[in-house]
Amino acid sequence: LSAWEEDGAAQVRRLSDVWVVNYEVVVPQAQGASVESAALAASTNSTSFEDALAAELVLNGVDSELVSSFLSVESFDAPVLTTVEESALPTTTTVTTFTTTSSTATSTSVTATATTTTITTTTILGELVRRWVYTNVSFDAYNLSVPPDTAVDNFSHWLIYATSSLEEQTTPTILEVVDTSSSISALSFTDLDFDALELGGDISWTQPSNMIHVQEYYVYLASSAAGFGRSQVVQDLPAGAEAAVVPAETGLASFTHLAVYTSSSLAEQTTPVAQALSDVGQIVATLSLEDLDLDEGDLGGQVTWALPSDAGLITRFDVYLAELPNETSCNGSEADDSQPYSTMPCEVLEFGCCWKSWLGSADPNATSFAVPVDTAKSSATHILVYSRSYFVEQSTPATHVIADEIASVSSIVYTDHDLDFAELGGVMSWEAPASDGRVQDYLLYLTDGEVGGNRSHVGDIVAVGTNKVTVPDNTVRGEFSHLAMFTRSSLTEQTTPVSVQISDTVALVAN
After folding, report:
1. Which of the 8 DSSP states describes residue 72?
2. How many Å apart are CA 241 and CA 262, to the nearest integer?
3. Rounded to 5 degrees, what angle do the CA atoms 77, 82, 86 make?
């Protein structure tokens, strides 16, 4: 669609859906093979040509979404190379381009209107040259502005002629064309944001060797190496800069390249230096926690994981307790502030949670982390492990559902058969925990309270599978009021036992 204004109102006309462009290139014989090779490459694979054409259309004001949706090079015919003697070349070559008139939705009527550009040959200082009339200016002009992206082709000089009402002078003033090339080199970017489909990290490059006209650098994410479908990702940088930062959590979307352009006081360059993007996802695998703290509401044990396939950029792992929402809400209480770890809200990103508490960090080559015994579970539902680079911690971690291991005995029974005052002796029995897979053995103590406190070990250590223990005769009761049974895992003894109050049996003979 082509748009313009008429009487203050926007007008639109529909152009032809398909365009056919014929071209003819005249070059010295030494350049013929390279031009033919380039055209042949475009005929066998027109993708690069289409990308370059698309980029030029966008630079000239065409909406990028329209270009990406509707532009398609259907075919590019193979070139035909013809060699002729220089004397046989016409002194005037007419290059014809075509525009089209409007078409309707049901049929297309195309009328070609020819405009011409004339290339002539002439002799200057005894040498045959080809020239093209670029423009005419008034006699009182002292300069001329050349628009950006004016094609140099194979022209090498500016020829400036004075003309009278009769004719153009024969010998012009000659100025060599100096085509300034100022592109960066050694472009480098490594993605240090370890979340999938997100980018972040440092960019570096080497400045152009010719900096005389460079004023700024522009950094874009683009959908091709030619800069098609681009979006600026770093604010304008001054000449002299050799580094920039892609902010963490920058969306990858459909971008495939990072492109850096130089810019002069006149314009931004058309062809950038680009690097293909490699999105690095570094999330640990097979995350698990074997809870060996046998008390309800307490955790303790090893968090284990498998390293990502390429862990070379990881500087550490951060391990958290967290409550994740139950469907859409947070039902638990706040984390226990008395614990020796910090509590904070989770990020509101692709991954969200109610709260998380930092347990500690692990080295980049580690595959486990020790959760201290008696770590309060509070309302936590998951263990989280984040991979971290020196640049940023990932926002979407690996997660593992917490299974709080509870292994306490029940139905304990003790009858004192030592008939002396303040002395105990007899057998205690109990029922094993419903889940005793992580129980290693049982320990019996005399305690001064229901939940422990001051205590003294009594009897033998009892292995799993045996549900009774003997309290030796003549065991001094002392100040103790309870017998308490503790379960023990390979890591630790539980903190909260099951206990029974002591009933001291006394039988004395009187008279």
Report:
1. -
2. 11
3. 140
Q: Which residues are registered as beta bridge partners of 275?
A: 258
Count CB neighbours of 511 within 10 A. 2
Q: Which two tokens stand for residue 476?
A: 């001094």
Q: Is 372 helix (H, G, I), strand (E, B) or coil?
A: strand
Confirm if 456 and 449 have CB atoms less than 8 A apart: no
CA pair distance 55, 67, nearest whole angstrom? 9
Reported as a single tens digit per residue, the pLDDT across 149-188 is: 888 888 889 999 999 988 888 888 999 988 888 999 999 9
* DSSP three-state, residue 398: strand
| Tally of CA atoms within 13 A in the half-sphere of 441 that contains its CB | 9
121, β-bridge pairs: 130
Look up residue 485 and give its two tokens.
């049974």
The CB density around residue 95, as the number of other CB atoms within 10 Å, is 14
Positive or negative CA dihedral for 349, 353, 355, 359? Answer: negative
Q: Give 193's strand partners.
A: none
- To 10 degrees, what angle do helices 29-44 and 47-59 make? 90
DSSP 3-state assignment of 441?
strand
15-33 per-position pLDDT tens digit: 566 777 777 777 777 778 8
Report the alpha-carbon distance of residue 102 to residue 15 in Å, rounded: 5
| HSE toward the beta carbon, residue 291, CA cutoff 13 A | 24
Q: Would strands 423-431 and 410-416 be described as parallel, antiparallel, or unpaired?
A: antiparallel
What DSSP element (H or E) covers 29?
Answer: helix 29-44
428 neighbors 412 (Cβ within 8 angstroms): yes
Q: Where are the beta strands (DSSP E) in 31-182?
A: 92-99, 113-124, 127-132, 157-160, 173-176
Q: Would you give the end-to-end CA distance of the chain in angstroms? A: 124
The token duo for 333 is 């209480």
Q: Dig out the tokens for 353 from the structure.
A: 């949670």
Return d(Cα 99, Cα 113) in angstroms, integer: 6
Residue with tokens 């033998």: 460
pTM: predicted TM-score of the whole model, two decimal places: 0.64
Q: Which two tokens stand for residue 90?
A: 């016409």
